């Protein structure tokens, strides 16, 4: 009787092995579900990024507002007859402060021959 019980217990363990640790086992399925969830989250973030870039491209193609905004903030350009005012916070350095000025241009050599 003991031999039959032992044999059945071993057989039960052998049957359980693929269920837990095999190719389609529960642990593998849980790991794959976690990877799928991570991929879905990444796809969602990339979709929102693509939508933002798409709207920016459409704005750059159709409107002049985005081009003007980029010119102002990235290239520090201003419109003709426009006055530029910059407000500094307390303790903020003035633009150009602490920068050594460029040396003056070299003088032209004087011509040694008389006129």
Features:
115 residues; mainly alpha; 59% helix; elongated
Topology:
Blueprint: H1 2-21, H2 26-62, H3 65-75
Summary, kept brief:
The protein is an all-alpha fold.
What does this structure look like?
This is Cell division protein FtsB. One of its GO terms (biological process) is FtsZ-dependent cytokinesis. Essential cell division protein. May link together the upstream cell division proteins, which are predominantly cytoplasmic, with the downstream cell division proteins, which are predominantly periplasmic. The protein is mostly helical. It has a domain of 40 residues. It contains 3 helices and no strands. It is elongated.
- Characterize the main sheet: none
The overall pLDDT average reads 81
| N-to-C order of helices and strands | HHH
Shape: elongated
- Total number of β-strand segments? 0
Organism: Pseudoduganella plicata
Periplasmic side: 22-115
Subunit structure: Part of a complex composed of FtsB, FtsL and FtsQ.
Function: Essential cell division protein. May link together the upstream cell division proteins, which are predominantly cytoplasmic, with the downstream cell division proteins, which are predominantly periplasmic.
